[in-house]
Amino acid sequence: MTKQQIPRPTQRMGDRIRAAREARGRSTQSAAAEAEISSGYLFKLESGYVGTPSPRVLHRLAQVLGLDYWELMGLAGYVVPDGAGAPSAVAAAPPLASPRPFASPGPVESPASRASPELPAPDALGRIADALEGIREELGMIREAMAAQENASRGENS
């Protein structure tokens, strides 16, 4: 009796990345090096083993492999703006209870004037993704420092 294999949530994204890489005749090593990630991490991405891939990594891979960034973001499970190149399977996903439009920062406007928000330029989106990734890394370091302090204070109180 064999156990039925349940598809991983990011398997479609991984299949898309692998197909694009192979269509360009790129090895895992060369594509990973150009995207500034390890070949092992690219293998995990292509196999669907990365549950929440970094937007920064997806942005780099999209550039290296000629893929649409928003398509990868949607396949990875991120919410993507309407009309941002998301594949139909992602666009057909059930809507959120109260969707919020993706709008560029600016002065506060009335709801009526925000009927059709404009997306930032792709290079601005890359900078936003890089900034968010940096914040994520800093939060990880802060958590580690807090845990180390907590452990040290436990040792002093013993």
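^ that was protein a. below is b, sequence first then the tokens
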Amino acid sequence: MTNPAGVLPDVMQGIGALMKATRQGGVPQLTLELVHLRVSQINGCSACVDAASRSARKAGESDERLATVAAWREAPFFTDAERAALALAENATRLADRVDAVPDAVWDEAARHYDEKGLAAIVVMIGVANFFNRLNATTRQVAGQAW
């Protein structure tokens, strides 16, 4: 099937508006790209992993960091703020893995680095990435192929 976001034009307009809104939260674009990539890795969405990697490279992300984002806890390449955003992304993506989906410690660490607008931008990016992952995985979109 063609990607549902391409079939229903209003969907892409809505996604575009959400993506634009994430850039208004004061979070560095590279951090948002890393969040998108990590969410897509967790969900096993090859189309989004590919797209997020390409987008991050275009925004100036290094291959070294892209190659290690799946193991960000052990890699020395990420700032404390990026680590907080990645932890929040993981917890908010794996909602059913624990009773307390996003533990206070994870939220508090993110809130230590980002104000309310920044947190909103990260949470919206997590939601958009998960939404895209579900569209792409459900309809078996292929990495590297435009729709």
